[in-house]
Design brief:
mainly alpha, 23 helices, single chain, 726 residues, two-stranded antiparallel ribbon
């Protein structure tokens, strides 16, 4: 038996979740002390102030009235926030219709397994015992799906509101020094990270306990129903990632191609009609989309572990503490991330630009080291001395930093791979693109070996430090927005240099976050696949049979079909954006001279309308392919589709994530020079890959895996229609 009692488990998990929520609210309170309203009666400087929150400005702005700057920053912040909120509400209206339609489908499919019978049935793994009816599983799976979907939507929306709340505050803090701005951006990212991790843990724990009131000792049925939580989270994340990615890249391409290349104006120049849409896109794509994505990974990994545990000796012996081992790991992760965050915000001070990247890297290293110790402690107190897992072995825990650090090497301008791509800009955009593609393909090697080795040691620990991972990832778009606001508000070049330094570090941390997402997607998918195989009791597969071969071919093709759809969607939306930006530059008198104001709203509407329209076909492809293959081919064909689709998707998404341009290109020529234009074109080509197709592929491989787990009973009963006919 475990050292930790059942009562101790019931107390520890919700307490850790509440601690995480309280810590996020504390960070929010500290950030809110940075005012975005003019204050003509500010208190005098205080030599004892920590982090500069009661400091007066260290330096005066050059030729700009300070109060006017604050007002401009507030106006720009409101415009970005309103645009992001409007887009998400529009997106959620369409997604809400899908959510309820798919919930009905879940109930009908799972309820039909036993003809909507309300009688108890023999348990799958112990025929002598009776388990709850299939109709109950259908109902509770539907409820957990809706709960997961709502939590995913909430995660993305809260992340967006936090980011748009913090962007102008980061800009204003940059007047006091780069350290103050860094702390503001990182605290804001921590708010999002801890809220998501704590809410996900708390909601899942509450759902388990409520379902337990009905299921009692039927662990198999309870955790089979709870898998809907992961399906709901990933379903909403898919639309958030695809829709947000199309939005942000359509605006980005339009702003860069016309503004930087054709008109030779700086990035985030207020004369550019697409500049507000571009900054809105950072929040709906990189913040809301990433929040929903990582929440989906967290929910799916927890559900996969719970399903495997429910059919192990834990479930047979009704060991509640051991059953909740995945949730205890997440609880420990919140405490570890809390301590890790203090190293960035309180224990060390950022005094210079060169201190930023090391501070962010320390977050990864410290959280990994502390979590390794934390996992050992949880394993010691929560797991029995020996146990078995049905048709598997004993799983151990994986370390979570290899893939993330690798992407940092391949995307940071401090290292030779990106510098080589930048040097290729000297001969034009074509060689830049060729070098970039080669770099992306080469970058596949190390992550694949790392993921393969990691899977030997299990998957439970991958997302335990999700709060730190999200804090680092959210820091990037917040800093990017801060630089855009500084440019649009007309702040001095010294302030813009500081925000550019934050943005440069943010680009690297965004790559680290994407590496984190790559590793989590691969390992979560494998964990879900393992749970599916255990649930389906599949032992061997003959790849030479027609029904299996169909799954192999279709599975290998899916990531490419999906990527083609998302890339074309970005291209179609970007085409409309480029035409609109050109039209405004050509028809609005005085726009280039700064005497007239561009029509920002039209560009925002173009991105919104295009992304909502274009996100539906890729979403339908993912959600319906698995159902069609399983229903027409076979249960085993679905298994092979999942395995090959996961492998093909992981290999393809690594180079997709690592496409982009380099700040190193600046050394080859100033902005507006031919090498700079070549770098911008290369960046424009790579952006849809790394910000739309790549992130969406994460969800593709996870979503299909969890979908198979939820619908496993239905596919086992009704699958293989085509081969039954012939």
């Amino acid at each position: 038996m475990a050292l930790l009692s059942e009562l101790g488990t019931e107390i520890a998990i919700p307490v850790c979740a509440v601690v995480g929520i309280a810590f996020s609210l504390l960070q929010w309170l500290i950030v809110s002390r940075v005012k975005v309203t003019p204050d003509r009666h500010a208190p005098p400087p205080s030599s004892n102030a920590k982090n500069g929150y009661s400091d007066y400005l260290i330096e005066e702005e050059e030729g700009i009235n300070d109060q006017n700057v604050v007002v401009k920053c507030a106006e720009i912040q409101n415009a970005i926030s309103e645009g992001a909120t409007s887009f998400l509400f529009t997106e959620y209206q369409y997604v809400g219709v899908f959510m309820f339609a798919f919930a009905i489908l879940i109930f009908l499919f799972l309820g039909s397994v036993k003809g909507f019978s309300t009688k108890n049935q023999p348990c799958t793994y112990d025929q002598e015992k009776l388990c709850k009816p299939a109709l109950a599983t259908a109902f509770f799976s539907t409820v957990s799906f809706l709960l997961g979907a709502i939590t995913s939507v909430l995660s993305g929306f809260l992340g967006m509101k936090i980011a748009t709340y913090a962007n102008a505050r980061t800009t204003l803090e940059a007047r006091k020094g780069v350290g103050k701005a860094f702390i503001t951006a990182f605290r804001s990212g921590a708010v999002m990270g801890f809220l998501l991790a704590a809410n996900g843990l708390l909601f899942l724990y509450i759902a388990i306990n409520l379902f337990k009131l009905y299921y009692g000792d039927d662990w198999e049925g309870l955790f089979e129903a709870i898998t809907g939580y992961g399906l709901g989270g990933s379903s909403m994340a898919l639309f958030g990632r695809v829709g947000g990615g199309i939005y942000t890249k359509a605006a980005d391409v339009g702003a860069d191609l016309v503004g930087k290349v054709e008109r030779n104006i700086p990035e985030d120049d207020p004369r550019n009609p697409a500049v507000i849409a571009d900054n809105v896109g950072d929040n709906v794509g990189d913040i809301a989309g990433m929040g929903s994505d990582l929440f989906g990974s967290y929910a799916e990994s927890s559900c996969a572990a719970l399903v495997v545990a429910s059919i192990s000796s834990f479930g047979i012996n009704h060991d509640f503490t051991a059953m909740c081992y995945p949730l205890l790991i997440s609880s420990m992760g919140i405490l570890v991330c809390l301590i890790t965050t203090l190293f960035a915000t309180d224990f060390f001070e950022i005094k210079a630009v060169n201190d930023i990247e090391p501070a962010l890297k320390r977050q990864l290293i410290i959280s990994t080291v502390l979590m390794t110790v934390g996992i050992a402690i949880v394993s010691w107190v929560a797991l029995p001395s020996s146990f078995t897992i049905y048709n598997f072995g004993v799983q151990k825990v994986v370390k979570n930093w290899i893939t993330a650090m690798h992407t940092e090497y391949y995307t940071s301008n401090a290292y030779s791979p990106v510098q080589d791509v930048a040097d290729s800009c000297r001969t034009g955009a074509a060689t830049n693109v060729i070098f970039g593609l080669a770099l992306g393909y080469k970058s596949v090697i190390i992550p694949i070996f790392a993921i393969a080795i990691s899977y030997l040691f299990g998957t439970l620990g991958m997302l335990s430090t999700i709060a730190t991972g999200l804090a680092i990832d959210a820091y990037g778009p917040i800093s990017d927005n801060a630089g855009g606001i500084a440019e649009m508000a007309g702040m001095s070049h010294r302030i813009r240099e500081r925000t550019d330094a934050l943005d440069a570090a943010g680009n690297t941390t965004a790559a680290i976050g994407k590496g984190f997402a790559i590793g989590s997607a691969a390992l979560v998918s494998l964990a879900l696949f393992g749970a599916f195989v255990s649930r389906a009791a599949i032992s061997t597969v003959d790849v030479l049979t027609p029904k299996v071969f169909i799954g192999l071919i279709v599975g290998a093709m899916l990531p490419y079909w999906f990527s083609a759809m998302t890339m074309k969607s970005v291209g179609s939306a970007a085409l409309k954006m480029v035409e609109e930006v050109r039209r405004q530059f050509n028809t609005i008198p005085g726009l280039m001279e700064g005497h007239a104001k561009p029509d920002y709203a039209t560009c925002v509407k173009i991105s919104t309308d295009a992304s909502i329209k274009e996100m539906i076909p890729p979403g339908a492809l993912v959600m319906l392919t698995l159902v069609i293959v399983a229903y027409t081919s076979s249960f085993v064909g679905m298994e092979t589709l999942l395995s090959v689709e996961t492998l093909s998707g992981v290999v393809w998404l690594v180079p997709s994530f690592l496409a982009g341009a380099s700040e190193h290109a600046r050394s080859l020529g100033p902005k507006g020079s031919e090498p700079h234009k070549a770098a911008v074109i290369g960046d424009t080509i790579g952006d849809p890959l790394k910000d739309t197709s790549g992130p969406s592929l994460n969800i593709l491989i996870k979503l299909m895996a969890v979908e198979s787990l939820v619908f496993a009973p239905f596919f086992a009963t009704h699958g293989g229609l085509l081969f039954k006919i012939f």
